[in-house]
Design goal:
Blueprint (H helix, E strand, L loop, with lengths): L1 H18 L21 H4 L8 H6 L51 E5 L3 E4 L4 E9 L3 E8 L10 E6 L2 E8 L7 E2 L2 E2 L2 E16 L3 H13 L3 E9 L6 E3 L7 E2 L4 E9 L10 E6 L2 E3 L2 E5 L4 E3 L5 E5 L2 E9 L9 E2 L10 E12 L2 E2 L3 E8 L65
Parallel strand pairs: 2-10, 12-23, 16-21
Antiparallel strand pairs: 1-3, 3-6, 4-9, 5-6, 7-8, 9-10, 11-13, 13-19, 14-21, 15-16, 16-20, 17-19, 18-19, 21-22, 21-23
Length: about 425
């Protein structure tokens, strides 16, 4: 059948081609597919002139092409729809089924939390509040500390509501709690372990009640709370004392003591007493520093007499240091002074916190400086100039100012015998 159809279609195509050919076409007319040549106009009008031999060659008309049409019928199978599957990486959470009554670790059964921060200061007693709540049914329970710190009290129940208990926790951390390897730490953090003990539990739904009871028996009722202990920032102070000497003789030693209140101190963290130089102009006099005359006692320089209370034993000693003269505001030596007034400062340092400076004044007795007595000159004796002399005790802090020059005067004896300088009272120190 297919061969017969192909033969008929081919026959019809050849017949159509032959019927379309123009055999009566004027040879002078240009065929659409023929090559273009230059044809003289006279030949088109019937003038039979002889053509140029070169023109004859160009007037040869090529044969038109004979197209061959062939129709071929092919069976093309229809392609069916195809599904392309691509593998794409994707994170998929896999949930493993667990029996409901055995998955108690994620059960929300109770809560334990601190109402106020568990923050404490070393050497001071503080109070914190802890609250616990059972989230199901009607329950009674209690809280217990598993690691109570030293000097702490047990949890004290202060409030009771439905399924809620509020407890009070008191603690006074020791000062040495913050001392490690001989150094004081600014703070230290620890875990406070609190456990809930279920005493009774009831629910209307007995089946659910049994599951909750089983859950409490399966999970841990322990809760760890964060607490912190810090060093105190209280300022130490020097307690006023009446035994600080105010007067002393040269070559004398007077013991005295200073009482100090220093919070947050202990035998491992003792306070420190600082003896400082102090000097100031008071009225017409200059009160220099007498800190070099104050020394710690050789026997028990410091001792504790109570909680945060300390005594520093000191000595006021005028046997080892040279005594300076009294200086005036004009920075001149007061030759008529019978004593010299000095001062020093005391300051306490504890837990890296300093107290205010307490200034102490004392007076050292001295003799007036020797001055030669001038003699009135007479007409019988010549005038002999003499110089006024005085004893100056050197001091490392001030440079003595020389006394003003006196007018020359004659001696009563009338002989040239200058005054002899007196011997110094104290041996100057280099």
């Amino acid at each position: 059948m297919k061969k017969q159809m192909l033969f008929v279609i081919t026959t019809l195509a050849v017949a159509s081609l032959m019927s379309g050919c123009k055999y009566q076409q004027d040879p002078l007319e240009e065929h659409p597919n023929a090559a273009k040549v230059n044809v003289p106009v006279d030949l088109k009008n019937g003038d039979k002139k002889e053509q140029n031999p070169e023109d004859k060659k160009d007037t040869k008309k090529p044969e038109p092409p004979k197209p061959i049409i062939e129709y071929v019928i092919k069976e093309v199978p229809v392609e069916k729809d195809r599904i392309v599957i691509k593998e794409v990486a994707k994170e998929v959470k896999v949930y493993v089924p667990v029996e409901e009554e055995k998955n108690w670790e994620s059960a929300n059964l109770f809560q334990i939390h601190e109402v106020s921060d568990l923050s404490f200061v070393a050497g001071e007693e503080s109070t914190a509040t802890i609250r616990a709540t059972v989230l199901h049914g009607n329950a009674t329970f209690s809280l217990k500390l598993l690691n109570p710190p030293t000097n702490s009290t047990e949890l004290k129940l202060i409030s009771t509501e439905k399924n809620t208990r509020t407890y009070e926790f008191k603690w006074k951390p020791e000062v040495r709690y913050l001392i490690s390897n001989g150094k004081l730490s600014p703070e230290k953090r620890e875990k406070l372990k609190v456990q809930l003990n279920l005493e009774s539990f009831e629910m209307d739904d007995k089946k659910k009640e049994a599951k909750i009871r089983e859950a409490f028996n399966a999970v841990s009722t322990l809760k760890e709370l964060q607490m912190v202990v810090r060093k105190t920032n209280k300022v130490p102070k020097i307690i006023p004392s009446q035994n600080v000497p105010t007067k002393i003789e040269p070559g004398q030693v007077i013991p005295f003591s200073i009482t100090v209140e220093a919070p947050g101190t202990s035998n491992e963290n003792k306070p420190i007493l600082l003896i400082e130089d102090k000097k100031e102009f008071v009225g017409n006099l200059y009160e220099g520093s007498g800190a070099r005359f104050v020394n710690p006692s050789a026997n028990k320089p410091i001792e504790q007499i109570g909680e945060n209370l300390w005594i520093f034993n000191l000595e006021l000693d005028t046997t080892t240091e040279s005594i300076p003269p009294q200086i005036t505001r004009q920075k001149a030596i007061d030759a008529d002074a019978t004593s010299v007034i000095l001062r020093f400062g005391l300051r306490v340092l504890s837990n890296e916190v300093s107290s205010e400076t307490s200034v102490k004044r004392f007076e050292i007795k001295i003799r007036p400086m020797a001055v030669s007595v001038p003699v009135e000159p007479t007409s019988e004796t010549p005038v002999t100039p003499t110089a006024q002399t005085q004893t100056v005790i050197p001091t490392p802090r001030f440079k003595p100012v020389p006394p003003p020059k006196q007018k020359p005067s004659a001696s009563s004896s009338g002989t040239n015998n200058p005054a002899t300088p007196p011997v110094p009272r104290h041996k100057p120190t280099n």
